[in-house]
Structure formats: structure tokens, C-alpha cells
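User: Please fill in residues for this 244-position structure.
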């Protein structure tokens, strides 16, 4: 708690001395874990579009990577905090630390990372549980959402259902929600790659005469250990197969 208070004060003071660069955009996906998801495909679109030829892009990673067309910076380093203060635009896809300080002239685009088929934020029932590995109370968990979402200037939504869920879960104004679809889905839909589905199925030993259903559930707050969230399979797939 003390460290977060110090960082918050540091970023506020830093912001008074660092001028905003209107052509600087900083990206991060899942708090610097990967080069992926909506921030990636937004970045690649902008990188390859002449309209943004005079913009500068920076990606923040926990472990620095070399990405074509951008500079990278180590997440939570002094240089990262400097660039966070300097960048006109933030493009993130997950809840960011509560101590981040955003100046009024900066624009925070939150892209999120999926359709909320589970409850989020204020829509989670208070059943006495603690949340995340940090063991936040229900009240503190909501505060962590609120302290980030009030900084959002815009939130991307993939569909009507998600828009309604986001407004309810994050308690944000409807006009902040941009129901424009997800860049990562645009990439798949507009892809021109020739894909031979039979070859892909053969590679993974899948039947070529059947539809394939991908089951990829998200994590749950009550399933984790010291290394992170765990996946617990509670579906009996044998009941789905009439031949078993």
C-alpha cells in the first residue's frame, strides 16, 4: 500500500514536468505479459497505415520483446513511467494499476479482451469471498475496477450484449462505449490466408467429417495457487458423446 502511494505521488509530480507528445501511443496487453489481443491488431493496423506514419509507438512488456515498427520498454521501469506520462494515448486491454495517473489531456482507450459471459465488477455477487491472489475483499475488488474505469475515455465493445454488460459491470456512461467490434476479430474475418481445414484437422488427429467445437473457458477467481490461476475441468465430455 505504501509503495503504491509513493508511485502515485511520483507519477503526479512527474506529470507536471513532462509534456505530452500528441503523436505518441503506448500499448500493453494483459499487463505486459504478451504481444496479443486487441492492442496488437490496433497497433498493426496503425503501423501499416500511412495516416499514422508520423506517430510513434511503444509497447510495454514484463520481458522486453523486439516488435517490428515499435520500440519496447520494460513494464514498471522508470522509462515506462516517463513514457506513460508523455504519451497522448494509452491502449490497454485489462484493468491497470490503481496508482496510474492520467492527465486530463491524455486519452485512455480500454479495449478489454472478451465478451463478458461471466459476471464482472459490480455484477459479481458478494458472497464473502476474497478476490484474486492478493485476496482483495469485495469492497476493495470493486474499488480496483472503479479506480481504473473512471480514467477510461473510451471502451471498445464487440456487440450489444457486451455493451450492456460493460455499462452495468463498470458503472461507466453509455457514451464512453464504442460498439465497433474487436480488432482481433476483424483480423480473423478479413484474413486472406488460404487455410486447408482438412490438413489442420489431420495434423491434430481430428476427424475430418465432423464439426469441431473449441471449449476454452476463462479462469475463475476462486481457483488459483501461488503460481497463478488454475484451470479446473468440471465438464464431463463423455456425456456429450453418445458412443461412450
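Assistant: Residues filled in for all 244 positions:
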Amino acid at each position: 500500500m505504501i509503495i503504491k502511494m509513493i508511485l502515485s505521488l511520483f507519477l503526479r509530480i512527474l506529470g507536471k514536468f513532462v509534456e505530452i507528445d500528441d503523436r505518441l501511443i503506448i500499448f500493453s496487453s494483459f499487463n505486459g505479459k504478451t504481444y496479443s489481443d486487441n492492442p496488437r491488431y490496433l497497433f498493426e493496423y496503425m503501423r501499416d497505415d500511412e495516416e499514422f506514419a508520423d506517430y510513434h509507438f511503444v509497447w510495454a512488456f514484463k520481458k522486453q520483446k523486439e516488435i517490428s515498427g515499435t520500440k519496447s520498454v520494460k513494464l514498471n521501469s522508470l522509462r515506462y513511467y516517463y513514457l506513460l506520462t508523455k504519451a497522448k494515448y494509452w491502449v490497454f486491454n485489462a484493468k491497470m494499476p490503481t496508482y496510474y495517473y492520467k492527465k486530463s489531456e491524455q486519452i485512455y482507450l480500454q479495449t478489454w479482451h472478451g465478451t463478458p459471459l461471466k459476471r464482472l465488477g459490480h455484477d459479481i455477487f458478494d458472497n464473502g469471498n476474497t478476490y484474486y491472489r492478493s485476496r482483495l475483499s469485495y469492497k476493495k475488488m470493486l474499488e480496483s475496477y472503479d479506480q481504473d474505469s473512471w480514467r477510461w475515455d473510451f471502451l471498445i465493445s464487440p456487440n450489444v450484449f457486451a455493451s450492456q454488460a460493460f455499462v452495468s459491470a463498470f458503472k461507466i456512461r453509455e457514451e464512453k462505449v464504442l460498439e465497433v467490434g474487436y480488432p482481433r476479430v476483424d483480423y480473423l474475418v478479413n484474413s486472406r490466408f488460404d487455410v486447408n481445414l482438412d490438413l489442420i484437422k489431420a495434423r491434430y488427429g481430428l476427424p475430418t467429417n465432423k464439426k469441431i467445437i473449441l471449449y476454452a473457458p476463462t479462469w475463475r477467481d476462486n481457483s488459483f495457487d501461488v503460481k497463478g490461476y488454475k484451470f479446473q475441468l468440471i465438464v464431463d465430455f463423455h456425456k456429450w458423446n453418445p458412443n461412450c
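For context: The mean pLDDT is 90.
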